[in-house]
């Protein structure tokens, strides 16, 4: 009898009795919020990401619909005849479902925020979403939140990261120990992004509290192209490589039909059974008209400073660039030894080509930069970016300065275009190891890679 009365009361609830209807709707809202919040917390705990909005909305509506259907079926089972299709009952049921649909996102947001804060305090190393101010203040960690995907820049001189990779990094929150210096925090962030996300290169500026001021990523160059010098090409031919032939050997290609004849000389870049890949001059590559029938002769090894430098530079975090010092810039009149004081630049000045005169290899610390000097640098993306900002004219620096005065709002500096070819500013084959490019090489680079403002990148 009691069950019958409860079922009948649940079914007969309507706006004819406003007090009872209001209590029922509030109860529905609380139950839906708790269900959506619990689902959001469990989803965050298991999948480490935010639950989709549609899932919580469907869950909230389902909870109310299940209750309404259960009470209606219970009333029918005990022999009662509830007015299920009466306009008052239908309207109340629709309002109940609407309350569930509106309340579910509120519970989802509260549950997800609670999950993020709880997991942060429990020692998680990575989160998605923003931490509350209380957790940031009480937690024994520094939270670094990456910017959205459309604010993640590309590191110049490197291949751009894919949109999928940027979307994967977007708005991630990484947790680090609180008592870290800004430089140590930056190093740990860069290391984690490379190890956990497979990012090739990272250029980031952090504030003392862990706020990201500038963030750009790049991928490592793949394939043979980045290692080929200008005017050279790589071609695959069928030959008979020696068993001990390895990448980097200097080889000669010969044909013995109708009589032995040397075709060209190149550098071995790959061996796969009888197929070999050889890097050689473009003009020599045009003479290889046949795919097979060649014989290889391995020559004694010779020091190749440019090849060794390109190989080391390709696998290192640093890159090479050439920047022109503009008149009136912060570097105009400064010395090599005062780079850190001018713009916190920790790049290595490999050589300087003055506006008038010959190239100065490894300039001394008291060398004074002048307007029009072409400076060859080796350093990380961030150091080169700051050097470019310091070498720009005050007008360019003011027009594109960020909070620190060195880069513009979107992370771009008034630098020149880059051709991603480190060999442009490397020694040629005739130069000794460690020497800067010869005058002829520098002239050729200046004619081919210079931008209208006189700045160029390698």
TrEMBL record:
Q: Which InterPro entries match?
A: DUF8167_2nd (IPR058603), DUF8167_3rd (IPR058604), DUF8167_N (IPR058480), RCK_C (IPR006037), RCK_C_sf (IPR036721)
UniProt keyword annotations, A-Z: Membrane, Transmembrane, Transmembrane helix
Q: Does the keyword Lipid biosynthesis apply?
A: no
**Residue ranges of the region described as Disordered:** 394-458
Question: RCK C-terminal domain location, by residue?
Answer: 307-393
Annotated membrane-spanning segments are 26-46, 58-78, 90-110
Molecular functions (GO terms): monoatomic cation transmembrane transporter activity
Q: Which domain of life is it from?
A: Archaea
Q: Name one GO biological process term.
A: potassium ion transport
Q: Where is this chain compositionally biased, Acidic residues type? A: 399-411
Per its record, how is this protein called by name? TrkA-C domain protein
